[in-house]
Design brief:
This protein has about 675 residues and is an alpha+beta fold. The protein has four domains: about 170 residues, Rossmann fold, CATH 3.40.50.620; about 110 residues, Methionyl-trna Synthetase, domain 2 (Beta Complex); about 140 residues, Isoleucyl-tRNA Synthetase, Domain 1 (Orthogonal Bundle); about 90 residues, Nucleic acid-binding proteins (OB fold (Dihydrolipoamide Acetyltransferase, E2P), Beta Barrel). It contains 19 helices and 26 strands. The strands form eight sheets. The chain has a five-stranded parallel sheet with strand order 3-2-1-13-14, sandwiched between helices. Strands 20-19-18-21-24 form a five-stranded antiparallel sheet, with no helix packed on it. Helix 2 crosses helix 3 and helix 4 crosses helix 7. The N and C termini lie far apart (about 80 Å).
Length: about 675
């Protein structure tokens, strides 16, 4: 592997149109933070770049919904997101934002360079325009009837009922969400990045030179390249974003996909005057941490932008993660189906590391994974508390009890001592190997194996049993156990930074670097330990039940607000088909269950013409005695049909809702039996 002098690590920029949730942490920010903390610990020159994506239609939609300006929205949520990341120890060197002036300047200059170098193309196309609002409409500002399922409220980019991706031009009877009027087609000019011109280069750069990329990343890139790339619009008609720096482009902004990744560069410029060495030196390694929905942008589109500009390095790896689900269901911000970070800390104060641990243990590295509150409780109680916390507490309490909290001196070593020390020495390299290959779950498991080693060692040596008969042996046992504690303080820091800080304080040590890990003599004999405190606390069933109930309430609210599903219209008939049906008002005179048929009732119906038997599948919804005297509408000229040996002479008309429940279709006022329905 090539040797690098420095690293530039970026994380996907979250949209500043809402708070962040556990899916964001699990899929991008915790693994990135673990990686960067490890790099810092081994002495690497690394910068960690993050920020809020504050342009694009989602921002303007949120502003419109709340009746405020887009700037008000991004100010509110940028602050909230930044604070959430700080609270969870995501150790950015800078967390910037794309609405600041420096970013606008850098993004404009980037566009201008491509424009002046002839790397962009332009052409004129027709797009929807709202004549009342005097503006072109982004796809999300247009609604209409879905041509696939008939949903009358489909958006111009997707029907949220049937899930079909759409173009606004596909919609039937399109309407502007701004004025409510029908938009017209109007010509507009835009500039494009000709991705098709980079296909051959991408085939070599990705498909041949980066076969080490994760299968999900490599596979998605190959699929896009094999399908053939098309020019992609760099500009759009919108009033919120980075203004296109051309006289002929008034009223246009840079497309958010174009300006957002440039945010990594502008944030680095904001961070340091030496920014160029982190973006333009061949001995710098660029790593993007993203979710799988951003693979194309960071592996194909942004590299093409950098290649076109000509002076920037390209990403060496893009360890994209899959998605995290919640209690078996996809996390959804619109449905409030999420665990929001700011709410988590209200319910679990000072327990950031518990969530970091659980999300890393369940990291969706190669496939979608699931977060459940029960698993959260189990991992806290059975792993962090019973293994990690238990070992630390046992060791420090025994040291305080037998040696007044001072590190005892190591004496002659037995075979179990040397075997344990040999295991300690192996741990740092095992964790390093996992982290350098972006295997975070395995790395966490190796860290926890060190705590398991400590527990196993204490259990097998039983110092509390032999102290009175062999105190010198206890000296050695507790010395080695304390060295394991010190090693844990070092190697847990990337994963559990708050726990590491507490542990170093309890050991009365200044934080140490990775190079010190694996040493069996970190703590000198006679070293005075600090005050003991519990690293983890048990989480009781009622606490978890409260969280589960909160989600159940959310699900109930979502179900209540869910639009009623209406079946599609049946095949069109002509008027003559309708008039062939003889539908009359009637009344149920008698009703009884049909033996050995759970769904059927045998009804005697007065049709005004006669009294006849009708067998109806309504027994699940009505008891016989409840419907005596019920007025109904009945199709009287339906051919007789035998059901369970009973000849049924007609059909009662029923309405069925989206849950499959039935109710009678009947006159709204008193009518005599036999009136025709027309």
């Amino acid at each position: 592997m090539k040797e690098y002098k420095r690293y530039t690590v970026t994380t996907a920029l979250p949209y500043a149109n809402g708070p962040v949730h556990i899916g964001h942490l699990a899929g991008v920010y915790v693994p990135a933070d673990i990686y960067v903390r490890y790099l810092r610990s081994i002495g690497t020159d690394v910068i960690f770049i993050g920020g809020s994506d504050e342009h694009g239609v989602p921002i303007t939609l949120r502003a419109k919904k709340e009746g405020v300006n887009p700037q008000d929205i991004v100010d509110k949520y940028h602050s909230m997101i930044k604070q959430s990341f700080q609270n969870f120890g995501i150790s950015f060197d800078i967390y910037s934002r794309t609405s600041n002036k420096l970013h606008h300047k850098v993004a404009s200059e980037f566009f201008t360079k491509l424009y002046n170098d002839g790397k962009l193309t332009s052409f004129t196309d027709k797009q929807y325009y709202d004549e009342e609002a005097h503006q072109f409409l982004a796809d999300r500002y247009i609604t209409g009837t879905c041509p696939h399922c008939g949903n009358p409220n489909a958006y111009g980019d997707q029907c949220e009922k049937c899930g079909t991706s759409l173009s606004a031009k596909d919609l039937i009877d399109p309407k502007s969400t701004i004025s409510g009027s029908a938009p017209v087609m109007k010509e507009t000019k835009h500039w494009y990045l000709p991705l098709n011109e980079y296909e051959e280069w991408l085939k070599k750069w990705i498909l041949e030179d980066h076969k080490e990329w994760k299968p999900n990343v490599y596979g998605q890139c190959k699929s896009w390249i094999d399908a053939g790339l098309q020019p992609r619009a760099v500009t759009r008609d919108l009033d919120w974003g980075v203004k296109v720096p051309l006289e002929e482009a008034k009223g246009k902004v840079l497309y958010v996909w174009f300006d957002a990744p440039i945010g990594y560069i502008s944030a680095t410029q904001e961070l340091t005057p030496d920014w160029e060495k982190y973006w333009k030196s061949s001995d710098t390694r660029l790593i993007h941490f993203i979710g799988k929905d951003n693979i194309v942008f960071h592996c194909i589109i942004f590299p093409c932008m950098l290649k076109a500009e000509g002076s920037y390095i390209l990403p060496d790896n893009v360890p994209a993660f899959e998605f995290l689900n919640l209690e078996g269901d996809k996390i959804s911000t619109s449905r409030n189906w999420a665990v929001w970070l700011h709410e988590y800390l209200q319910d679990f104060p000072e327990r950031q590391d518990v969530l970091r641990y659980v999300l890393t243990a369940n990291a969706p590295e190669t496939k979608d994974n699931d977060f459940t509150w029960k698993d959260f409780q189990t991992k806290n109680n059975s792993e962090l508390l019973s293994i990690f916390g238990n070992f630390i507490n046992r060791t420090l309490v025994l040291t305080k009890k037998y040696f007044d909290g001072k590190v005892p001196e190591k004496n002659e070593l037995s075979s179990i001592d040397t075997a344990t020390i040999d295991e300690i020495k192996l741990v740092p390299n095992k964790i390093s190997s996992c982290l350098e290959n972006f295997h975070f779950r395995d790395a966490l498991a190796e860290m926890m194996n060190l705590a398991r080693l400590g527990n196993k060692y204490l259990t097998e040596t039983e110092p509390w049993k032999i102290y009175k008969t062999d105190a010198e042996r206890v000296n050695t046992i507790l010395n080695i156990s304390l060295q394991i504690c010190a090693n844990l303080a070092i190697v847990c820091e990337p994963f559990l930074p708050f726990t590491s800080k507490k542990l170093f304080k309890m050991l009365n040590l200044q934080p140490l670097q990775w190079k010190n890990a694996g040493d069996e003599n970190i703590l000198s004999a006679g070293h005075q330990l600090g005050e003991i405190e519990l690293l983890f606390e048990k989480i009781e069933d009622d606490v978890i039940e409260k969280q589960v109930n909160k989600l159940l309430e959310t699900k109930k609210l979502n179900e209540a607000a869910k639009p009623i599903e209406v079946s599609k219209q049946k095949e069109t008939i002509i008027f003559d088909d309708f008039v062939k049906m003889d539908i009359r008002t009637g009344k149920i005179i008698e009703a009884e269950r049909v033996p050995k048929a759970n769904k059927l009732l045998k009804l005697l119906v007065d049709t005004g013409i006669d009294r006849r038997i009708v067998v109806s599948g309504i027994a699940q919804y009505y008891k016989p005695e409840e419907i005596i005297g019920q007025e109904v509408c009945i199709l009287v000229n339906l051919a007789p049909r035998s059901l369970k040996g009973i000849e049924s002479q007609g059909m009662i008309l029923m309405a069925e809702n989206d849950k499959g429940e039935l109710c009678f279709v009947a006159p709204t006022k008193q009518f005599h039996q036999g009136c025709e329905v027309k």
